[in-house]
Amino acid sequence: MLVLALVLVGSVYALVSPAASSSADSNVSSQVAAGKAIFETNCSSCHGMNGEGTSQGPSLAGVGAASVDFQMGTGRMPMARPEAQAPAKRTTFTSEEVAQVAAYVATLAPGPAIPSADQYATVGLTAEQVARGGELFRTNCSACHNIEGRGGALPNGSYAPSLMKSSGKHIYEAVRTGPQQMPVFSKQVMTDQDVKEIIAYLNTTHSQPSDGGFALGGLGPVSEGLWGWIIGIGGCLLAAVWLARKGARSR
Ligand code: HEC
Ligand code: HEC
Question: Which atom of ligand 2 is nearest to the CA of 198?
């Protein structure tokens, strides 16, 4: 009985005591260690063994967890091969693995953290605030992303992608980390509330049916004018030719 009791007490103690004293610490450090391991196999060829950067990729010191979450979450990283711009694709990493790499990169130097859900949640915004988001979007973003967020070409073979399928979290992270040619919008320039309103604007625009007919890419007068020229004037010409030929035959 005594031996049994000793074994029991011993094993219960072994189970309970370390977990109680250092669980938070060891969770974080094991997450960072796991992230470092993933980083070394998938990313270090371009970003260097310690994220210091190589000729193939920039240094990641100070880009922050938000940048990693954005780049890996949208499937841009790891880049398959060096090229002008990493295309977004389906990510092959689990969200846990992304969080591990993000935690590791965040230890290199301080940078923007992954936003919490309430920083980009759009519930409870009024129609007026959504309209203000549209104004902010047209002032700050539409030059590159088009007035409806359908994307557009930029110089040197790069492009601003369509935002039709971007999640609120990725929009927030892109705004704060400025991937590639996109500028960084800091909290002084654009508050969390501003970003929320932009997200809400994009969501409403993209879920709106176009009751007026074809949206024609949302490009405005250019595509509408082209449509008018080719279909409208072209149709009139065809009708005129048809009428003229019919008239000649009936005579
Ligand atoms: C083939 C080379 C290559 C590989 C592999 C690669 N990257 Fe990159 N990475 C780049 C280049 C080039 C850029 C800069 C151009 C761009 O953003 O498109 C970049 C940019 C980034 C950025 C944005 C930096 C900033 O300034 O905001 C992050 C974060 C990043 N990479 C993380 C990763 C992670 C994490 C992995 C591994 C899962 C990885 N990369 C794998 C080449 C690579
Ligand atoms: C100077 C041009 C420019 C401006 C201005 C700009 N962006 Fe971008 N944006 C880009 C480029 C280029 C990329 C692609 C980066 C890459 O692929 O690494 C991008 C990517 C994004 C993405 C990622 C899309 C995805 O899910 O794949 C989002 C979201 C985004 N921008 C939102 C915004 C918002 C919101 C604003 C305004 C506050 C803005 N951008 C202003 C050029 C711009």
Answer: 35
Q: Is 219 contained in some domain?
A: no
- Do 65 and 147 have their domain in common? no
Q: Give SS3 for 179.
A: coil
8 found inside a domain: no
DSSP state letters, 83-109: -SSPPP----S-HHHHHHHHHHHHTTS
Q: Which of 68, 141, 164, 186 to mutate to test the pocket of ligand 2 (most atoms within 8 A of CB)?
A: 141
Q: Are residues 161 and 181 in the same domain?
A: yes
Question: Which run of H or E residues covers position 5?
Answer: helix 2-42
| 59 belongs to a structural domain | yes
pLDDT tens for 37-95 read 999 999 999 999 999 999 989 999 999 999 999 999 999 999 888 788 888 999 889 99
Domain of residue 138, residue span: 115-209
CA–CA distance, 130 with 196 (Å, rounded to integer): 9
Q: Is the CB of 175 under 6 A from ligand 2?
A: yes
Distance (Å, whole) CA 244 – CA 78: 63
pLDDT tens sequence across 196-205: 999 999 998 8
Contact 146, 219 (CB under 8 A): yes
